[in-house]
Design brief:
The chain contains three helices and no strands. Helix 2 packs across helix 3. It is 51% helix and 0% strand. It is an all-alpha fold.
């Protein structure tokens, strides 16, 4: 998400870069696809310090979409 620009730090893995740059699925038109991508991404970048609760995170994703899904807000 951000870095210092220090070339001695390891680069982002190709897998994570692909997940970050893949077009997001529209959660209104394809809820299952949106959830699947979001869960894979969250698990991949979440680290190993704490257990990953997919059901809890799935609920959070749905809550976020219901609260404020606005693709144009990025611009």
């Amino acid at each position: 998400m951000s870095a210092t620009g220090n070339p001695d730090l390891p680069p982002t893995s190709p897998e994570v870069m692909a997940l970050m740059t893949r077009p997001a699925r529209n959660p209104i038109e394809d809820e299952a696809g949106h959830l699947a991508h979001s869960l894979v991404f969250a698990k991949r970048i979440g680290g190993t310090g704490y257990p990953f609760d997919a059901n809890e995170y799935r609920s959070l994703i749905r809550e976020e979409v219901q609260r404020a899904y606005d693709p144009g807000s990025i611009a």
